[in-house]
TrEMBL record:
InterPro entries: Restrct_endonuc_typeI_TRD (IPR000055), Restrct_endonuc_typeI_TRD_sf (IPR044946), Type-I_RS_S_subunit (IPR052021). Pfam families: Methylase_S. Keywords: Coiled coil, DNA-binding, Restriction system. Residues 261-288 form a coiled coil. Belongs to the type-I restriction system S methylase family. The keyword DNA-binding applies. GO terms for biological process: DNA restriction-modification system. Residues 2-75, 102-278 form the Type I restriction modification DNA specificity domain. This is Type I restriction modification DNA specificity domain-containing protein. GO terms for molecular function: DNA binding. It comes from bioreactor metagenome.
Length: 299
């Protein structure tokens, strides 16, 4: 690909990560085992600055790589700490200062109300779906369009702080997952979800964390009548679902635990935003430094 010129390995490593190079490399040849067409790749011209500038560009991008790697490691450590906190605080293994006494155990139906409201026809509601890893997300954001079709009129109407249980199993949540609507005032979700509202007897954020920590998994495993249905959903009877048992500490302790866990979660989210910013910065640098649009000043 490079003839009669010296090429720095670190620079070349960054060059093959660019969008342009990947596009070229994706032009494959062969039918049984498609692979990059070397003849095409090797003949495609790419910018190659003088060797000292190559080295300097690689050093600059390496600085961002190191910062990204370090921040990712910090996030991983924080996530592990958060997981440990959830395991301890949500199971009564560790108590916050000022709280004692055994937790009560009650049924879902004692503190949650099943939601039967359907689409009221108002177009102000966001049409959402549940992603096992991201929670409630807009269908337009996930699929680039609303996929509800004619079933939209039967979608369940959620208000802020309501919960929805997606009975679809995934690697992250094999028994399905429960997420709370937090960011917006209302949303429409598939009618196959089991949806419920918190009552004034609880601090809902405590149960948001408890559900995310797989709190119901063992009980759900017992009430699932068979494997996935034809639509890929687990067979969970709604009446059985609301008979499931949940811990019931005092509302003061619920609030204290939720605040600790939310603070820890917010720290991770802030670090993740910083990581996303670093990645965007690196992407921008690659676009200008590896194309010659901007040149570095160096001695």
């Amino acid at each position: 690909m490079v003839k009669n010129k010296k090429c720095n390995n670190d620079y070349l490593f960054r060059l093959i990560q660019t969008h342009k190079f990947i596009q070229v490399a994706n032009v494959s040849s062969g039918s049984k085992m498609p692979r990059a067409d070397w003849n095409y790749v090797s003949s495609f011209p790419f910018p190659l600055p003088p060797l000292p500038e190559q080295i300097r560009i690689a050093e600059v991008l390496g600085t961002w790589d190191k910062a990204i790697s370090n921040l990712q490691a910090t996030i991983t450590q924080k996530e592990l700490l958060n997981k440990w906190l959830m395991q301890q605080l949500l199971t009564e293994k560790k108590r916050l200062k000022g709280f004692s006494g055994e937790w009560e155990e009650i049924r879902m139906k004692d503190v949650f109300k099943r939601i039967d409201k359907v689409n009221d026809g108002d177009d102000k509601h966001s049409v959402m779906t549940i992603s096992a890893k991201k929670g409630l997300v807009s269908q337009e954001d996930k699929f680039d369009r609303v996929i509800a079709g004619d079933s939209l009129k039967k979608y369940t109407l959620l208000n802020k702080n309501d919960f929805a249980y997606n009975k679809g199993n995934s690697k992250t949540y094999q028994m399905g997952c429960i997420y709370q609507l937090e960011e917006i005032e209302s949303a429409l979700v598939p009618f196959v979800y089991i949806c419920f509202s918190p009552t004034e007897k609880i601090y809902s954020a405590f149960y948001k964390h408890w559900f995310l920590a797989h709190g119901l998994d063992r009980q759900l495993n017992r009430i699932i009548t068979s494997g996935a249905r034809g639509d890929g959903l687990l067979n969970v009877n709604s009446d059985d679902f609301f008979k499931l048992k949940i811990p019931y500490p005092t509302i003061e302790e619920q609030t204290a635990i939720a605040n600790v866990l939310q603070t820890a979660s917010n720290e991770v989210q802030l670090l993740q935003k910083q990581l996303d910013k670093l990645r965007e910065q690196k992407k921008g640098l690659m676009q200008v430094l590896l194309t010659g649009k901007k040149r570095l000043i160096f001695k």
